[in-house]
Specification:
Number of strands: 25
Number of domains: 2
CATH architecture of the largest domain: 3-Layer(aba) Sandwich
Helix content: 25-40%
Strand content: 15-25%
Bound molecules: nicotinamide-adenine-dinucleotide
Strand order of the largest sheet: 15-18-19-14-13-21-22
Structural class: alpha/beta
Largest sheet: 7 strands, mixed
CATH superfamily of the largest domain: Aldehyde Dehydrogenase, Chain A, domain 1
Shape: globular
Number of helices: 15
Radius of gyration: 23 Å
Length: about 475
């Protein structure tokens, strides 16, 4: 059985303990590879390698770093088919999605930051007193990057690329649930000639590897994407150590559908924004608010379209919905469907596990599920389910829609459907979210700030925000 290895000091290595964890294929429920069960000792080795590499990596020119990151991007694209198949097998997502979104986007992340660093300028402030200030932006040192399972390579590269581009060395931990594409990335980095120790990837459990990164005295900056509870735990450890922190956390995103929207365009996109990647994208809209004048029509049309989604083998090109990422996660999602029923929710479609064992797929498939009849304060509408489950709810006025949208502890993203320009601006302004899409969803310009408010996180990724995060500004004031 294939063993995934750590990538430390430029080499693929066994974990110090020699212990491995099972890596399960979500579509079959079978173990198909082994993951290093690393611990603090592996993290210490990785930090040592990163510290050794830092003096020379931080002094390479932007051009030199750009060339290497660009090469990594090209190698990701050259291996698109293999990476997409691996990502799909490891995560359960349709291979078509991995091939069209996850892997190209990972390549794009490296390409984007390879060029962004060339344009990253520092400020200068002239004073009438006869002095000039300029801001030096220096790499910080060893950055810790911790990422989740839902968009494995896409989110892993979203952190690593800006950290490396700005001259830091990195100790990174992918999710133990989906480690395979990070392992393949380490092979690509070796092939691309990334200097030894610049990037180190340590596989294993959150409470061992993740916690060791968070607690490590030699890691002054941490970029984390994952659940809100884990984010709070990381903040608790890192804050007294005065670490620089970026936390991209959970969401409970609203989709606001007004009766003046372009209906057909909206319907098509809202099916996707609700169920892409089996609803396991932090940006998926899970609370659909529909203006009452079109509620009944929407309900019929939406349920009809959702029922057309094909749940099946992630490897098949015509599959729309693959497997959920793990048995544990599937059980959590099914539990929430039961909670919704006890809260008075009516299941309009879906609601059940899908048994594909006759096709040799004994894994974790769930029907895309639409629920109505719930109020906004119930658990189903307040807690992040992170699966193929959405609720629909009517509203009368714009004010009501805004109030309902903002009525959770999360504030990551919203999507708004209206053709009215004034309403667009009014609503977008009042939504307490980090990101608002209007008449679209998941349209991403990598230059824009990305992140949430409230329990959805602290800080922003993307574009120059990420390069600012991974550098320390120092003001130099010169009197002349
Ligand atoms: P998670 O918090 O369980 O795990 C995320 C990562 O943190 C994993 O690598 C895990 O091993 C590690 N980890 C766990 N415990 C840790 C600890 N004590 N110290 C340090 N690291 C630890 O999240 P998940 O289940 O992998 O991912 C799903 C969550 O991620 C959802 O809540 C989703 O909304 C969120 N997410 C947010 C964004 C965003 O950009 N805001 C993007 C994707 C996913």
């Amino acid at each position: 059985m294939e063993k995934i290895l750590n990538y430390i000091g430029g080499k693929l290595q066994e974990p110090v303990s020699g212990n491995y964890l099972d890596n399960v294929e979500p579509a079959t429920g079978q173990v198909y590879s082994l993951i290093p069960d690393s611990n603090k000792e592996d993290v210490d080795l990785a930090v040592k390698a990163a510290k050794q590499a830092f003096p020379s990596w931080s002094k390479t020119t932007k051009d030199e770093r750009s060339v290497i990151l660009y090469r990594i991007s090209e190698l990701i694209l050259a291996n698109l088919g293999e990476l997409a198949a691996a990502e799909s097998r490891d995560n359960g997502k349709p291979v078509s999605l991995a091939k069209s979104v996850d892997i190209p986007r990972a390549a794009h992340n490296f390409r984007f930051f390879a060029t962004a660093i060339l344009h990253f300028a520092s400020e200068s402030h002239h004073m009438e007193e006869g002095a000039i200030n300029y801001t030096l932006k220096s790499p910080i040192g060893v950055a810790g990057c911790i990422s989740p399972w839902n968009l494995p390579l896409y989110l892993f590269s979203w952190k690593i690329a800006p950290a490396l581009a700005s001259g830091n060395c990195v100790v990174a931990k992918p999710s133990e649930i989906t480690p395979m594409s990070a392992y393949l990335l380490s092979k690509i980095c070796i092939e691309a000639g990334l200097p030894i120790g610049v990037l180190n990837i340590v596989h294993g459990l959150g409470h061992k590897v993740g916690a060791s990164i968070t607690e490590h005295k030699e890691i002054p900056v941490i970029s984390f994407t994952g659940g809100t509870t884990t984010g709070a735990q990381i903040a608790k450890v890192a804050a007294p150590m005065f670490k620089k922190l970026s936390l991209e956390l959970g969401g409970k995103n609203p989709t606001l559908i007004f009766d003046d929207c372009n209906y057909n365009k909206m319907l098509k996109t809202v099916v996707r924004s609700s169920f892409a990647n089996q609803g396991q994208i932090c940006l998926c809209g899970s609370r659909l608010l529909i203006q009452s004048s079109i509620y009944e029509k929407f309900k019929i049309d939406f349920v009809r379209e959702v029922q057309k989604l094909k749940v099946g083998n992630p490897k098949s090109p015509d599959t729309n919905q693959g497997a959920l990422v793990s048995k544990l996660h599937m059980e959590k999602v099914l539990d929430y469907i039961e909670i919704a029923k006890t809260e008075g929710g009516k299941i309009l479609c879906g609601g059940n596990q899908v048994d594909l064992s006759k096709e040799g797929l004994g894994g974790y498939f769930v029907e895309p599920t639409v629920i109505e009849g719930l109020n906004m304060s119930c658990r189903t509408n307040q807690e992040e389910i992170f699966g193929p489950v959405v609720t629909i709810m009517p509203f009368e006025t714009e004010e009501e829609a805004i109030g309902l949208s903002n009525a959770t502890s999360y504030g990551l993203a919203a999507s708004v459907w209206t053709e009215n320009v004034s309403r667009t601006n009014r609503v977008a302004d009042q939504l307490h979210m980090g990101i608002v899409w209007v008449n679209c969803w998941l349209l991403r310009d990598l230059r824009t700030p990305f992140g949430g408010v409230k329990n959805s996180g602290v800080g922003r990724e993307g574009g120059f925000e990420a390069l600012r995060f991974f550098t320390e500004p120092k003001n130099i004031c010169i009197k002349y």
